[in-house]
Design a protein that fits this description.
Elements lengths: L1 H20 L25 E9 L15 E11 L7 H8 L16 E5 L5 H6 L12 H15 L7 H11 L1 H7 L7 E9 L2 E3 L5 H14 L5 E4 L6 E6 L30 E2 L1 H17 L1 E6 L2 E9 L11 H9 L7 H6 L5 E11 L2 E11 L1 H18 L16 H13 L6 H20 L5 H16 L2 H24 L3
Parallel strand pairs: 1-4
Antiparallel strand pairs: 1-2, 3-4, 4-5, 6-7, 7-8, 9-10, 10-11, 11-12
Length: 496
Amino acid sequence: MGFVNAVQELGRLESAKMKARRSASDEIDDYLQLPLPLVEDETRSGKVIRVWLKVETAENAKNPETKELNVLGVSKIDLVDYMAGTGDIDEKKRYYLYRGPVGSNTSWGFSPIYKLGQAKSDVQKEMLGENGQWPSNDESRFYKLERRVLSDYEKTGCFSKGSVKRIMEDLVQMVGRIAGFWVDKKRSYLLLFGIDHKGSFLYPGEIPAFRNYFSTKLRENLGGGSNSGTCALCGSGGSMVNLDKIFKFATFDKASFLPGATDAKGVKEKVFPICGGCLSALSRGREVLDSSFLDGRTIQGVKIYVVPELLQGQKELNIVSEHTRDFINSGLGVEKQVFRSLSRQDNSIVFHFLFWEKNQAQERLHLMVEDVPPSRLKWLEGLWVECVRTHLWNSYEKPEFDEKSITLDQAIRNVYGVLSSLAGKSEQDKAVMRERTLGILGRLLGGDKIDIREVKQLMVSRFAGLFSDPEWLRYGGGQLRQMAAVLEFLTKSNGR
């Protein structure tokens, strides 16, 4: 359970850092998430379309005793940059008060936020549906907004009766305003609901009624399970929940996710039970992963988690090198050469790699590789340098060999590119080849033996088709050299 323990320790470390910065910690802070990823490129960073709700007696909106908001309509709509304003990331999380939905078809959300995504060519049609009949068009955005986000606020008494109807009527009248803001197809947009408080915008996290709603949903769906048992992580007893509350791929049909569990039907509590305290730490750790240790690149939609773990535990963070402390605290940042960065860490740390895919609100685990030391990555990078020197360097048309320009990231890309090019043209063939390629990458990172004979047979079986393809022959020489380099790299990797 190295991966799970490492995520838990990351969460504890982050919680300790937060408590050190402020006197008190709110119980929901560990469960907050960023609604959009952080993007360094300003041309692609997110935007927020703010909906200013007009509330009767707006002064009461900041009163903790106010349980119900009587929403009279929408006073205005404006546009701001995502993460704009003062405050660090944790403060922004509290403002947004966001946590992702528990499922793709739920009729409620934790937060009054609707993800619009990238702009569409016809915004009004997207929002209102065909002929503007959005109440009867389940594909229109307004239909989804009303039923999956807003309606439950009225059902639970957070909004007064009739509030949602008044909001939607005003939004329909202001759809042109939304269309004027939702224009960039390179950015992701949020539709965020707050309160107009004397001309100032109150974000969801500043409104006690919204925070109470969030806390109630949290207790109902995450905190406090219906079954009693013993926590698989800390050994405490009491009410338990399942690990799939944090990682949705940790379900009863994925027994292999838990080491030693081979019979899915015999695994009680799906994967394993966790208590409320460990759930809180894991939730915070998952958010650290998503914000700091998720490789921004994908392999045909497959995401990569890089989870660091100190061999002596996070409590020994103060005695390891400053370089390692900086890495644990700041994450991968905007590293473009992720594997090179990892290979430069000290051997007081190991990495766990998770290859997973998001499909709407579900998650699919493809591969997990645990306990990979930086020395393994550095050694693999050295092997790739040798293979490039032998097979590829002349094709780069550089006057002299520059070892610094050859990285393990390049090796991973070449292995994946060469093997995926051997797939057939059907989507099924490509999916099968992707799984085989990910399996090879997993053995490569984990130090397991790779079946070189199988790789050779795969390449040879595709030669007849490749050699008969005139388009491939135009670039065949370079690709054959890449195949040779990849084959030698995988062969040499079996030597350790």
